[in-house]
Write a structure and sequence with these properties.
EVG1 protein, mainly alpha, 6 helices, UPF0193
């Protein structure tokens, strides 16, 4: 009806119907007599023309062997999920039927149960120092075997001397502590015990 109102020629109507059937956009100008469009001067900036991707006339179907070869026909294994507590569900339903409302129980924060952990004796610092010195000696021996002991020798010997100094301090503290306990238990000197 619009074509008749706009007084288009038969050629122009046919041209527009072909565009509609192909799914193309309608032209801005339709020339009345020929299929050739006159060459119009190209604008300075022309936006890129988007072309629709055409679908193939024949659909591409995969053969049955390829379909069966894939994992489309394998069923997923059943993985059970966490079950709900049926007793709680029964109680909730009883409360709803009895009172007409759902009773919301306040969440009780669970305090972590403190188990009696096995008393792990703290490693003796003196023994740790001995192990650290031994590790440094082994490292220095490995570097010597690789021929790189000159780079690390001074550093390692300094660390070993620091560890030894710390061991001496610990040894003095230990001996003083032992001496104090010994003097409390046993009187020092040749004074006779008044209880005897």
């Amino acid at each position: 009806a619009m074509m008749e109102e706009s007084k288009l020629t038969l050629f122009q109507r046919r041209f527009l119907m072909d565009c509609v059937k192909r799914g193309d956009t309608l032209p801005l100008q339709c020339h009345p007599t020929s299929s050739k469009e006159p060459a119009s001067p190209a604008p300075a900036f022309s936006p890129p023309v988007c072309q629709r991707s055409r679908l193939p006339a024949k659909p591409h179907l995969r053969p049955a062997e390829l379909c069966r070869a894939g994992d489309a026909y394998t069923r997923e294994k059943f993985r059970p999920q966490a079950r709900r507590d049926l007793e709680k569900e029964k109680e909730r339903l009883q409360n709803i039927l009895a009172t007409g409302k759902e009773v919301v129980e306040p969440e009780v924060k669970r305090m972590p149960v403190r188990r009696k952990e096995e008393e792990i004796p703290e490693p003796d610092r003196f023994e740790e120092l001995v192990n650290e010195i031994q590790e440094r000696k082994e490292f220095l021996a490995e570097m010597k075997a690789l021929g790189q002991d000159k780079e690390y020798r001074n550093i390692i010997l300094t660390e070993i001397s620091q560890k030894m100094h710390e061991m001496e301090i610990l040894d003095k503290k230990r001996s003083e502590a032992i001496r104090e306990t010994m003097t409390k238990d046993f009187p020092v000197g040749n004074k006779p015990d008044p209880c005897e």
